GntR family transcriptional regulator (Adlercreutzia equolifaciens), 124 residues
Amino acid sequence: MDIIISNGSSEPIYEQITRQIKAAIMAGELAEGDPLPSIRALANDLRISVITTKRAYAELEEAGFIDTVQGKGSFVAGGNLELLREERLRQVEGHLARAVAEAENAGIEAADLHAMLDVLLEEN
């Protein structure tokens, strides 16, 4: 699992880590039970504070994406297929909301937007 941190991003580092680990889990790159790097190891690899990685892992655990076992480490949580589906739905809804706003700004009517979506769905 490769995590890339951008110091120039307006997104806080812990959120960059959280987002990339969630994406890896949702894409199936990380499966249920897979171990994550220790907080200290990830901090060393990324050359960031242990506090930052600890916050990212805490956010992931609170959201149900990982489980942490004291003395053993953090692992991809099991049985979170519905959670993953909901996360994906929220992401798609966000993309669609941005597309609708862009279409409104461009003066594109709803029927035309529906037609564009239908064409895109047919292509896939």
Notes: The first strand starts at residue 66 and ends at 69. The beta strands are 66-69, 73-76. The first helix runs from residue 13 to 26. The chain has a mean pLDDT of 91.
